Amino acid sequence: MTGFPDNAGAVLTGLARVSIAQALKLPFEVPASAGDAWLDEPGASFVTLTQDGQLRGCIGSLVAHRPLRDDVTSNARAAAFDDPRFMPLGVGELARTRIEVSVLSVPVPMQFASRQDALAQLRPGIDGVILGAGRRRATFLPQVWDELPQPDLFIAHLFRKAGLPPNYWGDDVTISRYTVTAFLEDAP
Fold first, then answer.
1. Which residues of the chain carry a pLDDT beneath 70?
2. Radius of gyration (Cα) for the chain, nearest Å?
3. Cα dist from 101 to 82, 105, 158, whole Å
4. I need a surface site. Which of 20, 54, 67, 156 has the fewest CB within 10 A?
C-alpha cells in the first residue's frame, strides 16, 4: 500500500485502540474515517504497544492477506493479548499504553554471496528484515535499528530471535527486506 491520507495515523492508531478497548469491554469511539475506502485495500501491518517507552506487545503480518482495516484490528488484539512474551493487557493498562501502527511494503528478497555481502547491503534505519534459515524465521521492524544500529549486531540478534546462534551462517539463509510507514500515537 502506498500513499496515505493526512489523517491515516489517527485513523490507524484509533482503530487499533478501539479493537483493544472492545476486547476489554471498555467504552470506545470509532474514528470518524474508519470507513474510508483506502482501509479496504490489502495491507500488512505490525502493531506495537509500549508503556513508559518499554515494549508491551508487538504482533503483525509480513504479507498483505486481508484488508488493512482488518489486519490492524486483528494485530492490535494479538499484540495486547497474545504476544507470548507478555501477560495479556489488563483493563487498567490501556490508558497508559501507546500504540504504533507500522504498514509494511512488499518484502523483497535480497541476493548476496556471503554474510558480509548481506550486511553491506542493509540500510540501517530504513530496512525491516526477514531472516530465514531452514524452518526458522524472524523479523525486525526498521525501528529496531534505533536499539541495534550496527548491521552485524542487528543480524546477530535476529538470528538469536529465530532460535539460531548469533553467528550462524549457511546455504539455507534467506534475507528479505521491506520498509514501513509508521504511525505513532501521541503519548498517553
1. 1-2, 32, 34-35
2. 17
3. 17, 13, 21
4. 54
Query: pLDDT tens across 169-182, in order?
Result: 999 999 999 999 99
The three grid cell numbers given for residue 133, joined into one nine-digit string: 534459515
Side-chain half-sphere CA neighbours of 73 within 13 A: 17
CA-nearest of 65, 51, 53 to 75 is: 65
pTM, entire model? 0.92
What is the rounded CA–CA span in Å between residue 115 and residue 119? 6
